[in-house]
Amino acid sequence: MEEAVQRRIGGSLREKLPEDPEMGEKVKIRILSEETINQIAAGEVIERPSSIAKELLENAVDAGASAVSVEIRDGGISLLRVTDNGSGIAKGEVRTAFLRHATSKIRDASDLGRIRTLGFRGEALASIAAVSKTELITKTPDSLLASRYEIEGGVERSLSEIGAMDGTTVLVRELFYNVPARRKFLKSRKTEGARVQEIVEREAIAHPDIAFRYLQDGKQRFVSFGKGAPLDAVYAVYGRELRGQLIPLSGSYLPSKETGRPALRISGFVGKPSTNRSNRSCELFFVNCRHVRSPLLTRALEDGCRAFLMQHKFPFAVVMLELDPAIVDVNVHPQKLEVRFSDGEGIYTAVFDAIERALHETEMIADAEPPKREDPEERGASPAPEPFERRRLEMTPSFSQGERGEESSSAPFKEKEGYRRAEDFVPGNIRENPSFSEQRERREEKEGEGEREGENAEEKSRSEALSGKQESLFSERFLSEKARTEQRIIGQLFDTYWLIEYGDKLFLIDQHAAHEKVNFERLMKRFREKKALSQYLSPPIVLTLSSREELILQRYLSYFRELGYEISELGGRDYSVSAVPADLPRIGKKELLLELLDELCEESGRHTAESIYDRIASMSCKAAVKGNMRLSFREMDALLSELMSLENPYACPHGRPTIVSISKTEIERKFKRIL
Fold first, then answer.
1. Cβ-count burial of 178 within 10 angstroms (0-12 exposed, 13-18 middle, 19+ buried)?
2. Taking every pair of C-alpha atoms in the chain, what is the biggest distance, in angstroms?
3. pTM
4. Closest Cα to residue 78, out of 194, 174, 156, 171?
5. What are the φ/ψ torsions at residue 543 (nearest 5 degrees)?
6. Edge-to-edge strands of the sheet including 146-152?
7. Residue 205, class by beta-carbon neighbours within 10 Å (0-12 exposed, 13-18 middle, 19+ buried)?
8. DSSP letters of 238-274?
9. What is the pLDDT of residues 278-337, one digit of tens each?
10. For residue 263, what are the contacts with CB-CB under 8 A and spacing of at least 6?
11. Using the 8-state DSSP alphabet, how is residue 66 labeled?
């Protein structure tokens, strides 16, 4: 009996189980076939065409590619092709690469704590091949010929040798052809194509030193030239209308005792309030060049931007973290999007500080009329020959390109159709192609000259600031001691806005938002310095609290006392309030406390003294001067002086701007004095 058990454990159970008399005639529990297992397992990794694009792009990056091309048809369902000029795969390892859990990135579980590559699980190629018709063309630099491998539904069809350039091309056709239940859950071709483009764009931002190109149904939708500048990659994705609207992030935190070096470095960009979005689609986080989703990083970003955000608005940000792989776990989910940090509190603090410092060190006066946005289709449709096909195209007759990168009718038929021969989609070796390098340099120089000709002095200074160069803005700040002597208060508009002339700009100040901000900062300063004033009540207020309200009050009673409250128990759930904060006039004493308790009850998670202070101080808007209220010049001058003394005078506690500006140039354009 023991031998039988050992035999089964050793691998014979799969063959013996259906015939085993000990199991009875009717077998209810069966072991699935290898093909079915692979198809089910593939569903964890491959959900849609964008999942394939992500896995193949990560393989290309890990292979050391300097240029990558992605092309899809029918949303990536009928065809998805990824071409790179990386190190390739040796012929003897091609078959092994398509086995499940076959990888060159790790050797055992101990390597998971020091992963620096994007891929490591060894499931991508096996999962892709299990649910599609896959073709691989790959060549290493020391091989004379490339290997061509075809596999359909996990079953090998052929392995041969062909002529090709260094690198790897993977073609995935007829996705989910053998799993129709999965295919019917795919979205429209346009939606799936947009998801693939999103993956390419994020990889371009994460790896600005790699040139990316994306084509959809024969039309170029995105291109980045791999110059190595993170800002150029962001411009390639979101357009140059962001010029002057991004603030660089920098910082080193969490020093490591072992190495003596910072275990965490933060870089990237955060947008000014004018770039805020109505959702979180433009909140991008990268950990060791890997795009991730993290509630902790999201909270740190939004908390750091909170003073500059309007309600129900979200920041534009690209936050990049470089840290010791030992303090981050990327093996949380097969798709490798989720991460966990061993020191979550430290990571939160570091990101929060970097965001808050960058925003407070920059003057945040918004333009009254922001620049118009480019048409994303026009931006992504600029004609540019595919890097991998330059050498081949130079040998064919020249052809013109249309507005969206389509070949004209004069182009050869074989070039317009594409994908008919192996040589039509094999990669080229960019690093060994002098003609490509020379042409790209000439093109970049020409583009740079055109941009420089159209750039004015203001745009140049902004570009330098975004490139991380230090510059002193004190002399240009509207809210500075020097500027105050040169400002001219014109008057009040609509009994709400004040007009001030300074330099070549007209500034508009919202009196309610400005006064609200002054009240807010005054209160917060007193709270932090524990100098809050109390107003005693006669008779005291008696409150009957719910069990949840009572729990919150008891938990944070010391903080409430720091705010200026004096609260004592009367028995049961009744409490006596004999003193309240004296810095909030015009606010109902009882209502203020109950509202604060309600907000704390509704929110889950941690509550710090700072968050409690923020809640009560945000109510300072009720004590601020309102719109449609006439102020004297003296009152406005005093308000402006107080506003100038604040660290962040550019937005009220709810995120609305306090100051906007209109340049003289823009005004002259409106009156057609200049073009």
1. middle
2. 101
3. 0.61
4. 174
5. -120, 140
6. 155-162, 146-152, 133-139, 167-173, 79-84, 67-73, 211-216, 219-224
7. buried
8. H-GGGTTSEEEEEEEEEE-TTTSSEEEEEEEEEE-GG
9. 888 899 999 998 899 899 999 999 988 887 877 678 899 999 999 888 888 776 666 667
10. 253, 254, 255, 256, 323, 324, 327
11. S
Tell me phi and psi for residue 248, to 5 degrees.
-65, 145
Give Cβ neighbours of residue 403 (< 8 Å, ≥ 6 apart).
Answer: 381
Query: Which run of H or E residues covers position 69?
Result: strand 67-73
Looking at residue 175, its pLDDT comes to 93
Q: Cα dist. 24→5, 18, 21, 28, 223 in Å? A: 17, 9, 5, 10, 63
Coil vs helix vs strand at 485: coil
pLDDT digit string, tens, across residues 432-484: 344 444 444 554 555 444 444 444 444 444 444 434 333 333 335 677 777 77
pLDDT of 670 higher than 80: yes
Length of the chain (residues) = 675
Bridge-based pairing of strands 340-341 and 328-329 is: antiparallel
Which residue is associated with the tokens 């937005």? 651
Domain covering 37-224: architecture: 2-Layer Sandwich (3.30)
Residue reference for tokens 């808007």: 621
Residue 380: pLDDT band with limits 50, 70, 90:
very low
Q: What is the DSSP letter of 358?
A: H
Structure tokens at 20: 């085993």
Alpha carbon of residue 652 to chain centroid = 26
For CATH 3.30.565.10, the residue range(s) in the chain are 37-224
Pairing status of strand 262-271 against strand 317-323? antiparallel
Query: 225: helix, coil or strand?
Result: coil
Residues 406, 401: Cα–Cα separation, whole Å = 5
Alpha-carbon distance of 645 to 525, in angstroms, equals: 13
Choose the CATH number for 246-367 among 3.30.230.10, 3.10.129.10, 3.40.640.10, 3.40.50.300. 3.30.230.10
Q: Which of 55-64, 259-268, 370-379 has the lowest mean pLDDT?
A: 370-379
C-beta of residue 249 within 8 angstroms of C-beta of residue 354: yes
Round the CA-based radius of gyration of the chain to a whole number and report it: 31
Mean pLDDT, residues 3-15: 45
* Burial of 255: CB neighbours in 10 Å, binned 0-12, 13-18, 19+: exposed
Where, residue-wise, is CATH 3.30.1540.20 in the chain? 474-675
Which is more confidently placed, 24 or 128?
Answer: 128
What is the Cα–Cα distance from 42 to 125, expressed in whole angstroms? 10
Q: At what angle do helices 609-618 and 589-602 cross, to 10 degrees?
A: 130
CATH topology of domain 474-675: formyl-coa transferase, domain 3 (3.30.1540)
Side chain identity, residue 186: L
* 257 against 206, higher pLDDT: 206
For residue 614, the SS3 value is helix
Q: Inform me whether the pLDDT recorded for 154 exceeds 90.
A: no
Highest mean pLDDT out of 423-427, 579-583, 655-659: 655-659
> What number of CA atoms fall less than 13 Å from residue 349's CA on the CB side?
7
Report residue 577 as tokens: 């309030």
Most confident of 422-426, 567-571, 593-597, 614-618: 567-571
Q: What is the pLDDT of residue 167?
A: 95
Task: Count other C-beta atoms under 10 Å from residue 578's C-beta.
Answer: 15
Q: CATH 3.30.230.10 residue ranges in the chain?
A: 246-367
